[in-house]
Design brief:
This protein is an alpha/beta fold and 346 residues long. Helices cover 31% and strands 20% of the residues. It folds into 2 domains: 2-147 and 319-330, NAD(P)-binding Rossmann-like Domain (Rossmann fold); 151-312, 2-Layer Sandwich (Dihydrodipicolinate Reductase, domain 2). The protein is built from 12 helices and 14 strands. Helix 11 (284-287) links the parallel strand 12 (273-275) and strand 13.
Length: 346
């Protein structure tokens, strides 16, 4: 059994890790760290665990967690994880971080977009971007994984095959993403009150959302040159899920069947990628509660553009499920273990 601990276990992404790992056939949950709920059973914080998991939340004890864990998940705010991870990494632990702290190749870009100094920029060279569909072989060899952001996951998975095939013009990419309110985390915020969110849709952090830099980094690696995109996030009056609509100019004359072949060749062995047939587009109902990413597209011959629609559950494929997918790879077990199930349609 893999002995797993979670630091930041009672946030939304953290508790999804708890839920999924508690049912994982190869995992034994060792420590659930939550500074806000020390000495309380997780079932008292989230009553859906009553009768299933009553494990007590504990304080952070780096020495004990390091010694007793095979894998440590950190689900903390940015600029908090990096200091804890530094200590764990020096002790030889394997770590999957759900913050932004180890997603970047460049400390300067991280510091520019996040407005804080990086505590261990040297570890950025050791960390691997945890998007299994792009970095599976690198994940197998690392001890530190920077789990991708939810918005970048929803954009990179549909864009990567087209970028790799030079099928689109990188300077024309526009990403319009809409997320459920759980993407903002559990901390109280006036903008997330029920009366603010219900029956409302709003754009936020227009032209300045931090995930823009993460998307540009990964697309630039594929393109082998700097890439600049327009990215606008929106808040939906739903709990979870991300629907991204992506626009780009085609670099050559391509039919639907040509692009479908690009996708199927790129993702032919990917268990969590679902490609929609012509005339079908993804919806949140197709993916919520699952680790799947659904991708659909249409070719607009009139404007010589492609319009791509992707859907993921922001808390699973966009966070905890993807982290577990990387854990499975890291430990050499079937990648789908504990994750291959349909979402909740109702």
């Amino acid at each position: 059994m893999i002995k797993a601990s979670i630091i930041g276990a009672t946030g939304y992404a953290g508790i999804e890790l708890v839920r999924l790992l508690s049912a994982h056939p190869k995992v034994d949950l060792v420590h659930l760290v939550s500074q806000s709920f020390v000495d309380q059973p997780v079932s008292a914080v989230y009553p859906n665990f009553k009768g299933i998991l009553d494990k007590i939340c504990s304080q952070l004890d780096i020495d004990q967690i390091s010694e007793e864990s095979d894998i440590i998940f950190t689900s903390l705010p940015h600029s908090t994880s990096d200091r804890i991870i530094s200590a764990l990494y020096e002790k030889g632990n394997r770590i999957i971080d759900l913050s932004a702290d180890f997603r970047y190749r460049s400390a300067e870009i991280y510091e520019k977009w996040y407005g804080t100094r990086h505590a261990r920029p040297d570890l950025l060279e050791a960390s691997v971007y945890g998007l299994p569909e792009l970095y599976r072989e690198e994940i197998k060899q690392t001890r530190l994984i920077g789990n991708p952001g939810c918005y970048p996951t929803s954009a990179l998975l549909p864009l990567a095959p087209l970028m790799a095939a030079n099928a689109i013009r990188p300077d024309t990419i526009i990403i319009d993403s809409k997320s459920g309110s759980s993407g903002a985390g559990r901390s109280p915020s006036p903008g997330l009150h029920f009366c603010e969110v219900d029956e409302n849709i709003k754009a936020y952090k227009v032209a300045c959302h931090r995930h823009t830099s993460e998307i540009e980094q990964e697309l630039g690696i594929i393109a082998k040159h700097d890439v600049t995109v327009s990215f606008t996030p929106h808040l939906l009056p739903v709990k979870r899920g991300i629907l991204s609509t992506i626009y780009a100019a085609l670099a050559k004359n391509l039919k639907f069947s040509d692009i479908y072949d690009i996708y199927t060749n790129f993702y032919c062995n990917e268990p969590f990628i679902v490609l929609h047939e012509e005339g079908s587009m993804p919806e949140l109902k197709h993916v919520n509660g699952s680790n799947m990413c659904h991708i659909g597209f249409a070719v607009d011959n009139r404007t010589s553009r492609i319009i791509i629609v992707s859907a993921i559950d922001n808390l699973i494929k966009g966070a905890s499920g993807q982290a577990i997918q990387s854990m499975n790879i890291l430990f050499g077990i079937d990648e789908t273990t504990g994750l291959l199930y349909p979402g909740w349609y109702l």
